[in-house]
Amino acid sequence: MSDGPYRSLPMSPKWKQAAKCAYLPSFSISEVSTALQQAAERDCRAELSAGLVRRVTSLILGPDEPGLFHDLPMTDLNALHRDCSSTMEHGFLNNAIDALQEGLRSEAALQWAAEASVTDRLLAGGRQIEEHMYREASDHRARATRSRLEEAHSGVDLSGVARMLLRAPDAPARTTTAVYSGLDDGVPL
Q1: What is the pLDDT of residue 37?
Q2: Whole-angstrom distance between the N-terminal and C-terminal Cα of the chain?
Q3: Cα–Cα distance for residue pair 116/178, rounded to 1 Å
Q4: In this structure, is residue 31 part of a structural domain?
């Protein structure tokens, strides 16, 4: 097990990197947050089709002048479930419906739904990492990994990832990993 239990994690390479950062105490919490954010960004790009996001956006934003039928977006959103091809798409639709039921409208409802979808994915990924660590590592290391993941979760820019998910024009650029290439780039003292 010298390679670490994160190597056999049945997840994407970005999630394996997040697990490695959380497992090894040599990584700072901000590095764990960056790895989690990159994994969430990757999942949003891979599992949410631009067409579905566009359709949900147009339904929630609706026409400039609302008509008499306020339930129409809910009905159309529910009908979109049959077009979903991933769990994340189903979750995004459910979160959009929940946002409308909570009374949120237009951009606020979209942003809330997108942030909730990113949070759901981060929590699911964290649980999967934790479960894998309990199987492959000691209880102490698994608990330490869990606490580092929970601490790093607050450092993820949920709003930025949500804007990426929505393909918003003001969305931030992808998060990049810092590359350390020399002795001066080591761990801060």
Answers
A1: 94
A2: 29
A3: 27
A4: yes
The pTM of the full predicted model, rounded to 2 decimals, is 0.83
Helix (H/G/I), strand (E/B), else coil: 182: coil
With beta carbons less than 8 A apart as the criterion, state whether 88 and 116 touch.
Answer: no
Mean pLDDT by 10 residues, the chain (189 residues): 71 92 93 94 92 91 59 79 90 93 89 95 94 90 94 94 87 67 63
Write out the residue range of the structural domain in which residue 128 sits.
7-47+120-168
Is residue 187, in this structure, part of any structural domain at all?
no
**Whether 15 contacts 47, CB under 8 Å:** no
Residue 188 lies in a domain: no
Which pLDDT belongs to residue 6? Answer: 78
In a domain, 86, yes or no: yes
Q: By C-alpha distance, which of 169, 172, 145 is closest to 40?
A: 172
Residue 79 has what pLDDT? 86
Total of domains in the chain: 2
